[in-house]
Design a protein that fits this description.
Helix 10 packs across helix 11. Helix 6 links the parallel strand 7 and strand 8 (188-192). It is built from 24 helices and 23 strands. Among the domains are: 58-193 and 324-351, 3-Layer(aba) Sandwich (Rossmann fold); 198-231, no CATH class; 376-423, no CATH class; 434-701, Up-down Bundle (Rhopdopsin 7-helix transmembrane proteins), CATH 1.20.1070. With 765 residues, it is α/β, with parallel strands linked by helices. The protein has an 8-stranded mixed β-sheet, sandwiched between helices. A 3-stranded mixed β-sheet has the order 21-23-22. Strands 1-9 form a two-stranded parallel sheet. The chain crosses the membrane at residues 435-461, 473-495, 501-520, 599-620, 632-654, 674-696. InterPro entries: ANF_lig-bd_rcpt, GPCR_3, GPCR_3_9-Cys_dom, GPCR_3_9-Cys_sf, GPCR_3_C, GPCR_3_CS, GPCR_3_mGluR4, GPCR_3_mtglu_rcpt.
Length: 765
Amino acid sequence: MTYNLSSIRELRLELQYVLTPCPLVLSPQIPQVSYASTAPELSDNTRYDFFSRVVPPDTYQAQAMVDIVKAMRWNYVSTVASEGNYGESGVDAFIQKSREDGGVCISQSVKIPREPKLGEFDKVIRRLSENPNARVVILFANEDDIRRILQAAKKANQTGHFIWVGSDSWGSKISPILNQEEMAEGAVTILPKRQSIRGFDRYFISRTLDNNRRNIWFAEFWENNFQCKLSRHALKKGSDHERIGKDSSYEQEGKVQFVVDAVYAMAHALHNMHKELCPGKVGLCSKMETINGTMLLKFIHNVNFTGIAGTPVIFNVNGDAPGRYEIYQYQMKHNTTEYKIIGHWADQLHLDEMRWPGGTWQVPQSICSQPCHPGERKKTVKGVPCCWHCERCDGYQYQADTYSCKMCRFDLRPNENHTACEAIPIVKLEWSSPWAVIPVLIAVLGIMATMFVVATFIRYNDTPIVKASGRELSYVLLTGIFLCYATTFLMISAPDVGICSLRRIFLGLGMSISYAALLTKTNRIYRIFEQGKMSVSAPRFISPASQLVITFSLISVQLLGVCIWFGVDPSQAIIDYEDQRTSNPDMSRGVLKCDISDLSLICLLGFSMLLMVTCTVYAIKTRGVPETFNEAKPIGFTMYTTCIVWLAFIPIFFGTSQSTEKMYIQTTTLTISVSLSASVSLGMLYMPKVYVVLFHPEQNVPKRKRSLKAVVTAATMSNKFPTKGGLRPNGEAKSELCETAVGGMSKCHNCKNMYCKSWGNNLIY
């Protein structure tokens, strides 16, 4: 720190009137009271145990500057120090305090040599400009260095870029900023709290060369103050023309208050010591002829009085005075500049509104990294805690705290800005969805058609065609077809325990009933014709009652499997959060569904598939039987078509297992496939019969019955003469076969195709 030496010397001499000279003999341990020394290391009472001061150490100043930086929300600053004890210790104290408090990082720490080379200050500015985000510069430098730094910044065209925070060496002085006020605009400086002593002003401006000859340095001060050179004659006779403050500028030195307080602190300590050692005695007693430095230090540390400026003068255990500072800002307003007090510090910082370069009230930024947006975590740069990169909490992560992201729970997803988690919406197949409308429409039409066929069969229950179709198995088959259509409504209904249980039961049951009845029919046809090739006796279990027993036995296998499934794994509705867990959380949905996996569904339909395949095999085996005698070929066509439907179903169903529309596609595909299977059976097996019953009643009349032997013989002979029928017009080959089958009829034309078909049907069914 630098001072005006001439004025300090004058102050020191002018205040000597406070002390009364006395012949004291001091021990080597001499207590000292300083009015200007602020170096932090002087607080070390293991090295400087007899040193005390009425000014606060720079550690308090550094703490005040750290508080200012944090109050302005600056976290990335640079430091500049003049080489030497004051500058380096001040910066070290600032760095230490910033580390202890946290939240402030140092971008550059520059030291100015005692004897700077040419271009040294330009180099300093270049270093400070390396990190443009670090706009705030902490200065612990002497006046000359401060002035030259401002000049270099102006030369580098950095006006308004840097925000200077100066120590008490800058304070409220004019000399560092003279002719470069624009560069200093907005600078924040600090000074120990002080007050101008008016009594000293009155005394000092009355001093002249005539009345102040005792001060040997006063003549030197006079020459500097009036910028003149005193002759020997003037030194002897003095001068009555110039007056301090009238013919020259005058401003009270800022340390006057502390000089007075230091003198009074020593005076109070000696006074208190005299009262204790020499009670009731005027002047020194024998106990004070030799002063004990340790004892005097004790009395100095114990003083407590109100100083000349009205502030208490006290010392802590280290001999330091409490920190009390005033905060200044160099402001420019309407082309006028001034240092304005904008706050104070005494253990805590108090700031008023501040004005920044350009006349703005908005605090300029000096931060390493911009604050992260909501939903972003900070990834700190190694070794620089104030610098970071912002990383987005992506996917299903949310911002748990400033530095980390965490995954949301399986049933939650991050909100829009990834700061918290929210419930994933639950979806199910709605009745209004296009994925549901089409299957429902098909099912409704199918149910109506099925009911129409059932009503027709009931109305014409005793007619030959209805009888010939096997009424018992037909009603069973129509029941299965109805259940296949009805399953659509169970598959689209909102899942719960009841709906899920019904799905398990009826999804496979309708198909099992249908294919069990068809399998029984094809098996009966196959056994009749195989038996007929070897014997004229009828096969076993071809009666209607036997057919029903076989059919219901097959159906019971399906029901038994479902019952076992219920016992092992009771039905329940679940919310599947994996089905529609997309990479974009906004599109994620929880699917309300029954706990039936794809594999379980195939197992559920597996028995029906087995019945279907077996029925198809029998249909193939009976494909050679003439259509005149049985329903084998319509059943065959039904099974071929059904197999094609289900072969198309399997790749669609499993090929969409990874699709986000899986629930809709698979449900729609399954229901349509089941409905199509039922429609094929209904259309190929029963619609022709209904057509004949309703629109050709003349064909729905009783026909003469023939023996089983005649029918089988006719079928065998039909297979032996496949080409003759093609050679003769109007089906003459079939007429001959009919004649042979009748066994005695002389006229071939009396045996018509319809009669043969009717005979065959009556015998077989």
